[in-house]
Structure formats: C-alpha cells, structure tokens
Amino acid sequence: MNSRTTFPLDAVVAGYLGVDIVPGFPAGRPAVPAADLFRPGRLIETAGLDFSLGGVVANTGLAMKRFGQRVELMGSVGCDALGEIVMSRLSEHGVTSGIQKNPRAGTAYGIVVAPQGMDRIFFEDPGANDVFTADDIDYETVAKSRLFHFGYPPLMKSLWADNGAELQKLFRQVRELGVATSLDMTLPDSDSPSGKANWRRILEETLPYVDIFVPSIEEILFMLEPEQYAAILGSAAGRDMVEVIPHPLFDQLADQIMDMGVKVLMIKVGHRGACLRTGAISELNSATALRLLADNWSNRKLWSAPLPADPARIKNACGAGDCAAAGFLTALLKGAGIEKAAQYAMRAGRDSLYGVDSFSGLSDWKEMTDDAPAF
C-alpha cells in the first residue's frame, strides 16, 4: 500500500508512440462504402495531409495534461526524421524527458484513412515500439505518481510475445510500488503474428495486476471470443460492427474480465457510448492512492450514453477512444462519482472529434465541469 498523500505526479502514461499520417477528405463528401473506397484503380481526391502524434502516450497523455494533470510520458522513437517530428511536437508541451531514442528501430507511423461516414482504417508500422520492454520503464518516476496507464501492447511485439510474459512483468513491478494500474488495448491485425497470439491467456495472466481496464468492444471481443468476433464482423456486411453487437454480449464479456481481477472496467463502444462495470473499490483504495467513493463505485453496472456530435465540426476521429479514457482517468484521480466519470469520458471522446489531432479540440477541465449540466 502507498501511504503517501502527496505526489509530484498525477499519472505516468506509457506505451505505444508514433506519428499518424492522415490524408484529408473534403468536407461534405458523401459517405463511400469501404469496398468502393479501396476498389483497385479508383482515384480518390484528398484535401491536404496532416502529421499528428499517435498512440496512447500522445493521445491519452496530452489529453490528461490538457485536463490539468501532472503527467510524465514514457515511450520510444527511432533516430530518424519521424522521431524528430515526435520530439518536436512533444517539446511544445514540455514532456520529452521520458521519451527514449532507440537506434535499433525506426519511429512508428500509421497511415490513417478516415473519410466521413466510415470507421477508420490504419496501415501501421510499430517501429521502435516492437522492441520496448518492461526494462524501458523508469520505475523510480512511476513511484512518484498515483496512476500508471499503459496502452497498445498488441502493437508491441516484445510485450505480447511468450504469452505476454514481459507485459506481466511490467505490471507486476508497477503494482509492487502501490501505484494504481490502468491498461488500454488496440485491435490486432488478425493476419499478423499478434493477431494469432493467445490473447485470452495473455489477459488471464496480466489482468490480475491491472486495476482499471479500458478496452473497446471490438478489441475485447476479438481477444476473448474470436469466433464470435468473426461471425459478427461478417454479419455487419461492411457496416461498423459496433452497430450489430447484441447487448447481452457486453455483460458476458464484462463478467469474464471482472473474474480476471479488474476493479474498474470501461468498455468503449464508439457511437453507442460505454459499458461500465466495477468490483470491490475499497480494495483498490486501500492498495493505492486513489480515493474513490466506495459506496458510489463498488459493484456497479452502468451504461453511459454518448453525447451527440455535430457532423459539421468533426475533423478527425483518431484517438477519440484514448481521449475518452483520459477524461475517465482524470475524473478518477479527482475522486468523481462513477456517473460523472462516465460523463467526462463521453464529453472528452466527443470533443476529440472536433480537433485536427486527438486533443486540440478538447476543452479544459474547468470548462468541462462548468458545462456539466449539459451532459
């Protein structure tokens, strides 16, 4: 148990870091089915090209910083031009001290195809993230924080290999510090080695060390019920599969996750909102420096509806889930009730859509709080 009451840092956000390369699509362009968009020989006119930071380190970390949290970032880039772009962008926010330059691999990049009316498609090179290990975490710095949030192990080969032994080592060492632990995921490429890993086993052996888990429904369905994932994806017939996932399946998946040891679960469900489940919060409070209201948070089931988005203001869908996690985690650190924490998550996820990158469309925490009745 961490008995201190004051900490130099609110959170450390670590894990996947890279550059998103995003071709723009003209505003008002009619929605095009994915099959038509990628028809061989077709020319698609775009409007500009944006380089923005990508991955949980930038998306969630800088969003939490926007919300007034004292945040340290930990990740890895290559010694290349893209790495210089990452370091330059992060230096604008004063958070480069925890970012390593790795000469053994290039900087991760993602080419993000995100036209209006269609879910995003990613072409991703994990780069230096593939060689990131538990030993790349500065545990002395982590010990100065109340929360450790890590993201995207499916895109970090050293962490998911050997049934996630390195990922388990990482979370076990953080847990021993008395710091609350949080984990986010990303959807593996089903045809890649990561997509063929035994994710159920990886989760079964990692989640006992994870207090807060914030995956998307697609990610957790793929990992725990791959046959159902394939069947539902097929039945969606090109639509966003979130639209056709039956509601009882959320409870089934949540039950499995909670049985693995998680205390706070938020399953992100895109435009359908989020499914929340909690366990014995008094145990989380006693083991960490979090101070959640046990009567309000313990053993809850809650569905949080999304906030409506203004289509005319939407500029970018990349990182909305990461920003929702940032709103949720910030609310936990501030001791908010579960209903309010869910509302902050929905507001942050919605507002993220309005910026050219994941966090520039976000309000600060005071404005989000002042606007609370509008939630």
Account of the 3D structure:
The chain has 375 residues and is α/β, with parallel strands linked by helices. It has one domain (11-32, 46-374): UDP-N-acetylmuramoyl-L-alanine:D-glutamate ligase (3-Layer(aba) Sandwich). The chain is built from 14 helices and 13 strands. The protein has helices spanning 34-37, 56-66, 81-91, 139-142, 157-175, 199-206, 217-224, 226-236, 247-259, 281-287, 294-297, 320-333, 338-352, 365-370; strands at residues 11-15, 18-23, 49-54, 71-78, 99-102, 108-113, 121-125, 147-151, 180-184, 212-213, 264-268, 274-278, 301-304. The strands form two sheets. A nine-stranded mixed sheet has the order 5-4-1-8-9-10-11-12-13, with helices on both faces. Strands 3-2-6-7 form a four-stranded mixed sheet. Strand 4 (71-78), helix 3 (81-91) and strand 5 form a beta-alpha-beta unit. Helix 5 (157-175) packs parallel to helix 6 and helix 7 crosses helix 8. The protein is globular and about 60 Å long. The model has no long low-confidence stretch (mean pLDDT 92).
Describe what is shown at a glance:
This protein has 375 residues and is of the alpha/beta class. It has helices spanning 34-37, 56-66, 81-91, 139-142, 157-175, 199-206, 217-224, 226-236, 247-259, 281-287, 294-297, 320-333, 338-352, 365-370; strands at residues 11-15, 18-23, 49-54, 71-78, 99-102, 108-113, 121-125, 147-151, 180-184, 212-213, 264-268, 274-278, 301-304. The strands form two sheets. A nine-stranded mixed beta sheet has the order 5-4-1-8-9-10-11-12-13, with helices on both faces.
